[in-house]
Amino acid sequence: MRPTQTRRIHRLALNFLIAFLFCASFAVATAVRAQSKFAPASSALTAPQKRAGRTGSRAAQPARNPQILKLVTEIDARNIERTIRKLVSFGTRNTLSDQNDPNRGIGAAREWLYAEFLQVAVSSGGRMTVEKQTFEQPKAARVPQPTILTNIVATLKGTQPESANRVYVVSGHYDSMCSSPTDAKCDAPGANDDASGTAAVLEMARVMAKYKFDATIVFMTVPGEEQGLFGATHFAEEAKKSNMDIEAMFTNDIIGSSVGGNGVHDPHTVRVFSEGVPSNETQQEATTRRSVGGENDSTSRQLARFIKEVGERYVPSMKVWMIYRRDRYGRGGDHQPFLERGYAAVRFTEPNENYQHQHQNVRVQNGIQYGDLPQFDDFNYIADVARMNAAALAGLALAPARPKNVTFPSGLSNDTPIKWDGNKEPDLAGYEIVWRDTTEATWTHSQSVGNVQTFTMKGMSKDNFFFGVRALNREGNRSPVTYPRQAPRAPRTDQAAQPSP
Q1: Tens digit of pLDDT for each residue in 370-429?
Q2: In a domain, 411, yes or no
Q3: What are phi and psi of 368, to 5 degrees?
Q4: Average pLDDT over residues 93-102
Q5: Domain that residue 468 falls in
Q6: Considering the domain boundaries, does residue 60 fall inside one?
């Protein structure tokens, strides 16, 4: 080929490439212009909309509290295993079993737990007291004759006078059962249901008794759960009668295994069940809720969100799977009596249960081992669940109380004013407004507003977002969020001047 022909071919190829690049850039520009025709310009967004996630960043994670970091590391799976094996060694812990035998039955388990909590209390410097809360349970469907029941209650008193009467309760039930809840003679090891929860509570008490908290924490183990939640019901009822300020209650029930009956191995997840519509909601409150929303914003659901945020911050290997139900489908637990009396309460449970190891007589059938035996427990997993409990409890007890009487003032506006009562803690730093899109599960954005009792979110309508308020102290500890209620409407004096619904 001649040199002139070669140069001609090169020029043609270069011209083709230039034409191709021009066409491609024109097509891209056209597409961008077409998209911008229908998309709002970012400069048209208000600052609150940008903060709300339309174009902006999300709220930064707070710094971790050194005290909580330390106590979480002190929870020991070996202690949990020791407790579970000891409880299993009593043969049965059925609520109806022998109360006086020192080696077998519910009485032996009760006395051992009481002694263990007394030993734990020694390290508290007098701040922890331990009591037996004993009562007679009348005859009931699963209680053939009146029976003495005893809750073991260890109370770690708060050290801040303004917060000491604010109480957080964590529980597990120490009774167990075979296939029949009224069979008091069969072996009922109950290694998972619920020696696991009981062991977690005892281990949390052992670690946390050495630390000081602003508010009070109650570590409790109860009987009668399998017969009808009787131990927890008695405590909740007595608390209600005495106007005890229980801000939150956790129950740990079946937190023992990381392997489910479906074969799934998941040592990094725990379910937290929380109800949406409160169990004690009045008809008037229901009518208001149907008008303004809030089905996913009960105090119990705010508690679940708090547990997820704080638990995952301090135990990053674990995840909280929030379940929007009071409990498993058609089932119940010891948080229920607290919910029914207006307290915020949630349930911790493993993600995949094995029903061959729950409420079963111990036996081998068709080559399958049935029964709630310790060989099916994962003690390291239980320790991780206990760590998440402890982190959340410590976060609650070190933080200010959640804001009270949070309301949206009446009236129609594209801005959202919010009001609340001021907290009384001397170390209060101020408040944060939090918000989320109405379809989001957790609070995704926050804005510090200072130590004020009212704030207006400009350009953000309460029609379009869910809002809440939380308090924080000078150490950066944050309370759970309080969801605003609708303020009472002012009397209508000028019918014509009122905006239409």
Answers
A1: 999 999 999 999 999 999 999 999 999 999 999 999 999 888 899 999 999 999 999 999
A2: yes
A3: -110, 130
A4: 97
A5: 403-490
A6: no
pTM equals 0.86
Name the residue type at position 121: A
CA distance 81 to 317: 20
Domain C-terminal end among 368, 398, 428: 398
In the DSSP assignment, the letter for residue 355 is: G
Burial of 373 (0-12, 13-18, 19+ CB in 10 A): middle
At 143, list the tokens: 């209680």
Neighbours of 428 (CB within 10 A): 17
Residue listed under structure tokens 């379809």? 439
Q: State how beta strands 319-323 and 245-252 pair.
A: unpaired
Examine the domain organization and report whether 407 and 454 are in the same domain.
Answer: yes
42 is a domain residue: no
Which pairs from 376-379 meet CB under 8 Å and 24+ separation?
376/191, 376/192, 376/256, 376/257, 376/259, 377/81, 377/84, 377/191, 377/192, 377/196, 377/256, 377/257, 378/256, 378/257, 378/258, 378/259, 378/267, 379/77, 379/78, 379/80, 379/81, 379/84
d(CA 471, CA 450): 10
Q: Do residue 328 and residue 186 come from a single domain?
A: yes
